[in-house]
Fold this protein.
Amino acid sequence: MSDCLFCKIVAGEVPSTKVYEDDSVYAFLDIAPQAPEHIVIVPKNHLGSTNEIDSENSAVVGKVFEAAAKIAAERGFAEKGYRIVNNCGEDGGQTVGHLHFHLLAGRNLQWPPG
Ligand code: AMP
Ligand code: ZN
């Protein structure tokens, strides 16, 4: 956890372009955007992945989705639409071991993903 990239971003030890912040959630622009709007939303408290969500900590997932709705409205893509993605584990394509949700918008997103 002390070596966690997203914990360092939340702490301001690694720079990021902040999009949104509240008591429990931090959101920033993805460094390698996969859509015109690509925002990463993370719980401030470290959780390694979706596998670590339980009855004690699951409320933060609701906070993440509240943040997504606010960000979508503020950035003007709420009506047009967007996608929220969580990659979990190796087969899910997770590369950073701190629970996070991708908020993607600004183009017609295809389905299914690869
Ligand atoms: P995932 O592959 O689902 O674990 O997503 C990790 C995401 O973090 C990728 O989309 C990366 O482009 C993004 N990322 C990695 N390092 C940084 C960084 N320093 N600032 C912003 N986004 C980052
Ligand atoms: Zn972390």
Observations:
- The pocket of adenosine monophosphate (ligand 1) is lined by residues 5, 14, 16, 28, 30-32, 40, 87, 93-96 (CB under 6 Å).
